[in-house]
Amino acid sequence: MGKDIYLGLIGFGTIGTGIVKLLQENEDLIQKRLGARLVIKKIVDLDIETPRIVSIRKDILSTDTNDILNDPDISIVIELIGGYEHAKSFILNAMRKKKHVVTANKALLATYGEEIFTVAEEEEVNIGFEASVGGTIPIIKTLRESLVGNNIKSVFGIMNGTSNYILSKMTDEKKPFDVVLKEAQDFGFAEADPTYDIEGIDTAHKLALTLSLAYGKRVNMEDIYMEGISAINLQDIEFAKEFGYKIKLLAIAIHRDKVIEARIHPTMIPFDHILANVGGNYNAFHFIGDASGSVFLHGQGAGMMPTASAVVCDLVDTARDMMKGISRRVPLRSFPEKNIDDIQLMSMDDIVTNYYFRFSAYDRPGVLSKISGILGTHNISIAAVIQKGRKQDGVVPVVMTTHPSRERNVQEALKEIDKLDVVGRKTMLIRIEDERLQ
Question: What domains are defined for the chain?
Fold first, then answer.
């Protein structure tokens, strides 16, 4: 049935193995749907000796990327080595040899996407990157095709499974952060160095790509406000419950007239919010389009087979274009490259949202009046107060939530409050997304 389309795979780790497994196990199904056979002709990896869970002929294994780049039969290359320089060099060389590319490398695209997409346009080749955001969840396809007629009013996303696993376990089992992080590492949900996951960097890579697709903009990831979950403790989890909230690491993008509000941080959301019950290592995305209304996508954001599923989606899309003698039928970043311009991000100082404060106050008269007085002078209106809990190191927690307040005012107020002689430690701040407090 049809012809063979030859693939070259660089990176034969967990995801690479999953792609080979999926192409082998569902070969007949994919061939029927595509009308051609996807054939892996060469696999390149530094380690070609360690056994994998799939059976591969020895003669297709190599340690030399030139065996892929210089093979005229290979039409599509799959980049799974991760990182920056080597991956970037491989992708650019492949495209300059008129080979289409499929990658899961979100960090590379978020950092060097401008150069890579420009070369793809110049060489008239496809670059598929569905697996780079949300794993098996079709985020790229949804923004690039399904919602193409919509102004995207907002995006709220749980984009990192490791952080979501940690916060879910802390919430459900009342285990402290360090204990849950160690469990996540033991189960393989977290890396030995979890910094990218727990400090929001991985989420920022994904949000940068999401913003470029949703709004047709060039995005500098470093301009996105980013805050991780390492400071969240069980006290905050329990106080959140008392207020009717769960804490999630959210990526938030909101279209505000001519600017985009973009931020990543721990966020309290109501129990009945659609994202509140996304547990474990799952990812979820909540889009609101002006025509579509609410769109919710939920699934595995990482892992061998979910990521392999997204990569094979891109392989089939690219192969279909090839069989029609076309490329880039759908613009790579949803908009033609000539229509993409620089994004205008709202300053974090100008963000208006609701806040949770946990003050560490000494048990003295007049503490509440001093704190609330400073908040009032900075136009911060208190919604609720809880003062209870055991004294620790001479201080007790005083917890407040606010009505909508401006970030600049909040930061200035907390600087004053933390200098008070009745406050023992730096105030804990968590932002709240709750329309009921408007």
Answer: 4-134+304-339 (3.40.50.720), 139-299 (3.30.360.10), 348-437 (3.30.70.260)
